[in-house]
Amino acid sequence: MLLQRLSLCPRLMLGPKTLQTRSVSQGKNPSTSPYFRLHPVRQWSNVPFLTVPLARAHGKSFAHRSELRQAKRIVVKLGSAVVTRGDECGLALGRLASIVEQVAMLQNQGREMMIVTSGAVAFGKQRLRHEILLSQSVRQALHSGQNQLKDMSLPVLEARACAAAGQSGLMALYEAMFTQYSTCTAQILVTNLDFHDDQKRRNLNSTLHELLRMNIVPIINTNDAVVPPPEPNSDLQGVISIKDNDSLAARLAVEMRADLLIALSDVEGLYDSPPGTDDAKLLDTFYPGDQQSITYGTKSRVGIGGMEAKVKAALWALQGGTSVVIANGTHPKVTGHVITDIVEGKKVGTFFSEVKPAGPTVEQQTEMARTAGRTLASLLPEQRSEIIYAMADLLTEKREEILSANKKDMELALNSGRMPAAMLKRLSLSSSKLNSLAIGLRQIAVSSQDSVGRVLRRTRVANNLELEQITVPIGVLLVIFESRPDCLPQVSALAIASGNALLLKGGKEAANTNRILHEVAQEALSMHGVKDAIQLVSTREEVEDLCRLEKMIDLIIPRGSSQLVRDIQRAAKGIPVLGHSEGICHVYVDHEASIDKVIKIVRDSKCDYPAACNAMETLLVHRDVLRTPLFDQIIDMLRTEQVKIHAGPRFASYLTFSPSEVKSLRTEYGDLECCIEVVDSMQEAVDHIHKYGSSHTDVIITENEETAEQFLQLVDSACVFWNASSRFADGYRFGLGAEVGISTARIHARGPVGLEGLLTTKWVLRGDGQTAADFSEQGSMKFLHENLPIAQPLTGQRTSN
């Protein structure tokens, strides 16, 4: 049968040997085979086993999740709760199909996949119940002669019988599913006794290696039809005994020197206390020394193991050199990609690691920041200002240290040869930049005096019942920025001024500069005991993983390329993102525009800093401006500045020999390039901006005030200017001191976002024992809803009934 299946697999390259179907306990000793060689086991066992050399030298598990991408040989363990339906009678076919798809995809990538599966008992239980019901209904029909059947009770089904009835059906199902992906499978049934007999272990090892060599996925299960019940405390000499599929998967993973064991169950991973309790926290990474701090709950609805058994098996496999991840394989939203996500190094489930990082985890950093951030928000405004002034002074005092760190980053970037010139410019710091930063920080310190706790509205709801709306911090901010170390002190100062906790994730290209600038911020915060309010993420956290901390982070602010912003907006499904993905800014030249203003504004908008998000990308020209001296001067200026021109469709139709026609009118060039297009009117310019723009910044140049006012009213962008460069769309130029970014969103903050954009509000009600019933038809109190002066002190406002 197996040879027949092999003929259906065109990708198999059979060696000179013929694959024979024989039991594990038979056959000659494979140690003489040229395909295998003996390796001594580590200190936890004195029994040798066989292996083949892999791409990665085995012996040590992976220290970090990001290294899981290197895993070549992978064991996937499917727990009973994953494979079976909720009624424990039959298989969860949809869930199983998605798992098979992921395993087949990884197999086709060149990895060696093995599956340890449960499900035979559940499959057999379904089958035997069906047969029993069918036989009972036939007997009843024969004895009663009636079509109506009496209530039938099912006998208790013995697990071994169910396993015997279900094994063949389970394997047939796997075979049919994997065949859809041109992937061959083979079934192997084992018991604990097979691992106690040296000859059987060698045969098992030989069989598995031969199957993997031929690109076949082995599907392994305990032979539950004959397996004896597990014996408690039967682990001898450090070798784990096979009590369940958790221990089987761990034993096989170590015996086969697998790089990774993925154990799928019905829980998200390992918690520090039983899941469902109030304080239970999912552990992203688990270290062998942490097991004393874990409290285990009850086992899952099916299966014979439990989380304690899973942890024990995982630690044993980890000691044997195999990395382990325990994750949820039943969640409908993640089952379709849980295995591939784990292999890609994403933060899914609990990762077991022998290497404990020196510093706190990002979750711990976020908790530390939130706690210190609440203290920061409770400080007096003068105290927050003192911190920001101290930061500005430290930038000057530590100038040489900061520039030295930046020089290291610049040298590394230049030596790599992979960083574009625009990013190199952003990465570079100078004495003048540090001076400008210090000036900006001092402006923020001044403006922060009345930011947090400012009363926006005060209302007397009724006698002795007064309501206030006041400004408060948003909470914990996550700012992700690329190659712009000057962003760190700016954003830090704004977070301090607004009383927000801050989590910073900078690009690795600026690691040295970011580290010293973060030390500057923490040194300033220490003067009032809130050092932990600003945290720099220096671990190997992926941006996508940070965006999943929706219970810990309140707002994400990306500072970088449009691609970075788009990636974060896609990943942050549960956290608001403040920013813009594109800066497609327009300048419209009206037929009543001043020549001098046009040349100055267009040059500055495009050429001052082409890589900026507020640089002009499309120049819209009124039709009457064509073939005039004004238009000729515009073209001459752009050519002098070496700006590459792309012609829009209408502009190209006016020209005999046109520049390269634009591929898309919705393009952010980020360089000395721009598109020129022709419009018939101001209204047509507005329509073009709404269709192809990004709601960032758009400009009109005209001497007609009525036309300008209509443009300012009609254009729905975050910034709309009249006779001014698009480069003015900047927090510093707006007088905000600094900005955390420019937002094109419609909710919360819009345009350059400074201190005000990092605040939200809360309502404070001061009463005197009133209840809602007091204001009902039968109640004695009436609503007043009187607006009170904001500046009026609260004392003396209360009146007697």
The percentage of residues in β strands lies in 15-25%
Secondary structure class reads alpha/beta
Q: Mean pLDDT, as a whole number?
A: 83
Helical proportion, percent range: 25-40%
User: If helices are DSSP runs of H or I spanning 4 or more residues, what is the number of helices?
Assistant: 24
GO molecular function, one term: ATP binding
Pathway: Amino-acid biosynthesis; L-proline biosynthesis; L-glutamate 5-semialdehyde from L-glutamate: step 1/2; Amino-acid biosynthesis; L-proline biosynthesis; L-glutamate 5-semialdehyde from L-glutamate: step 2/2
Protein name: Delta-1-pyrroline-5-carboxylate synthase
Catalytic activity: L-glutamate 5-semialdehyde + phosphate + NADP(+) = L-glutamyl 5-phosphate + NADPH + H(+); L-glutamate + ATP = L-glutamyl 5-phosphate + ADP
List the main descriptive attributes of the protein structure presented here.
801 residues; eight-stranded mixed β-sheet; 24 helices; 26 strands; globular; disordered N terminus
Write the layout of secondary structure elements.
Blueprint: H1 2-6, E1 37-39, E2 49-51, E3 73-78, H2 80-83, H3 93-108, E4 112-117, H4 120-144, H5 159-179, E5 184-190, H6 192-196, H7 198-213, E6 216-222, H8 245-255, E7 260-265, E8 285-286, H9 307-319, E9 323-328, H10 338-343, E10 350-352, H11 362-378, H12 381-397, H13 399-416, H14 421-427, H15 431-447, E11 455-462, E12 465-473, E13 476-481, H16 487-498, E14 501-506, H17 511-525, E15 534-536, H18 543-546, E16 555-559, H19 562-571, E17 585-589, H20 595-607, E18 616-622, H21 629-640, E19 644-647, H22 649-653, E20 673-679, H23 682-692, E21 697-701, H24 705-714, E22 719-722, E23 741-743, E24 751-753, E25 759-766, E26 786-787
Parallel strand pairs: 3-4, 3-7, 4-6, 5-6, 7-9, 8-10, 13-14, 13-16, 14-15, 17-18, 17-21, 18-20, 19-20, 21-22
Antiparallel strand pairs: 1-2, 9-10, 11-12, 11-26, 12-25, 23-24
Helix pairs in contact: 4-5, 8-9, 12-15, 12-16, 12-17, 13-17, 15-16, 16-17, 20-21
Keywords: Amino-acid biosynthesis, ATP-binding, Kinase, Mitochondrion, Multifunctional enzyme, NADP, Nucleotide-binding, Oxidoreductase, Proline biosynthesis, Transferase
EC number: 2.7.2.11, 1.2.1.41
Domain Aldehyde dehydrogenase: 361-628
